[in-house]
Amino acid sequence: MKRKILALILAMLVFCASAYAAAKLDTQLIDNAKQALSLISYGEYKKAIKQLAFSKNAPTASELSEFASTSLSDLGYVTVQTDVAVAYRLDSGWRVAVPIEEPTYDSVQTLVLRSKDGQSFDAYKAMSWYEVESEAASADKVIWQEAYEPGELYLAKDD
Predict the structure, then answer these.
(1) In terms of pTM, does the model score above 0.90?
(2) pLDDT of the chain, 159 residues: tens digit per residue
(3) Contact 94, 87 (CB under 8 A)
(4) DSSP, res 96
(5) How far apart are CA 60 and CA 76, in angstroms?
C-alpha cells in the first residue's frame, strides 16, 4: 500500500515538474522573432531562418520567401515595426506574434511563431492582428513587449 502511494506521489511530482517546465518561455524568442521579421522584410531569408533557430522542420529560404510574398504581402509596402510583440500560451504551446506594422487596425498582417517547449520555434504562420488579440485574450498567460496603446504623442519637459 505504501509503495502504491509513494509511486502515485512520484508520478504527480514528475507531472507537475514537466508542466512547470513547459510553462516557461525563453523571452529571447520574442526578440528573435522581431529581428527575423526585419530580416524577412529585407529578403534575408537564410539569416531569418538562422535567427529563428527552428527545433525541427525549419523552412528553406525559398519556402520562407514564398510564405512572405503570399501571407505577409504587405511587407513590400510598409515600414516594418519591431517594437510591438506579444507571446501567449495556449494548449498547443506558446505563440509569439509580431505585427508587420504598427497595429492601428485589425487586419494588420502578423507573423506568428509557435513554440511547444518555450525554448525554440517549431512552426510559423500568418494571422491578422485581430485574430492574435482574440487568441491572446483567451490565453493562459500573456507577455507583452511594448503593448500597442494608440494615443496622442506629446512632449514633456525634461528637467
Answers:
(1) no
(2) 555 444 444 444 444 434 444 459 999 999 999 999 999 999 999 999 999 999 988 999 999 999 999 999 999 999 999 999 999 999 889 999 999 999 999 999 999 999 999 999 999 999 999 999 999 999 999 999 865 555 544 444 555
(3) yes
(4) E
(5) 20
